[in-house]
Specification:
Layout lengths: L5 E7 L4 E6 L6 E11 L5 E9 L3 E5 L7 E10 L2 E2 L3 E6 L10 E5 L4 E6 L7 E6 L2 H6 L2 E5 L3 E5 L7 E3 L1
Antiparallel strand pairs: 1-2, 2-5, 3-4, 3-6, 6-7, 6-8, 9-10, 10-13, 11-12, 11-14
């Protein structure tokens, strides 16, 4: 039987989490697959996947949001197959940023200028779709470090925007 990997939180800051991975077994490990989940808002869960080579590993995941709960799950790739999943939960330090205030204005039939307020020096995600279901399941998206973005959309459609 292949045991699940041990995930140990080594530390965290406002915008990063450091963790180690190891297996308590003599089975040869070729690497790990790690998923980091967080809730974008009340309806949308985001995920980042890391593929890590080697038996033991210490990882630092950066560019995270302050005071946000994260779930880290991992499984090991071994000579006998994949291990079961293991999970840990951690909340980053600091104060969660205030949600930005978004204004969207149609420039023409296929371009929408989005502007918002918020702190400088961070990455913003702009999500847009033609329905709430699409907005929360499979939105179009782009990222920027600015406080504005022009989004190209299909003509003759109404769009919902989230930043």
């Amino acid at each position: 039987v292949i045991p699940p990997p041990v995930i140990r939180i080594e530390g965290y800051t406002e915008d990063s989490i450091s963790f180690s991975l190891k297996m308590n077994t003599n089975i040869k490990v070729s690497g790990y697959v790690v998923n980091i989940y967080w809730t974008f808002d009340a309806h949308r869960q985001e995920k980042r996947t890391l593929t890590i080579e080697g038996e033991k590993s210490v990882q630092k995941v950066a560019n995270l949001t302050a005071h946000t709960p994260y779930e880290i799950s991992a499984w090991a790739k071994t000579e006998l197959g994949d291990s079961p999943l293991s999970f840990v939960h951690v909340v980053t330090g600091g104060t969660r940023p205030i949600p930005p205030s978004l204004k969207a204005r149609a420039i023409n039939q296929t371009a929408v200028e989005c502007t918002w307020t918020g702190p400088r020096g961070v990455v913003y995600g702009i999500f847009y779709a033609t329905s709430f279901l699409e907005l929360y399941q499979a939105p179009h998206n782009t990222t920027t470090t600015f406080h504005n973005a022009t989004v190209i959309v299909q003509r003759d459609e109404q769009y919902l925007f989230l930043v």
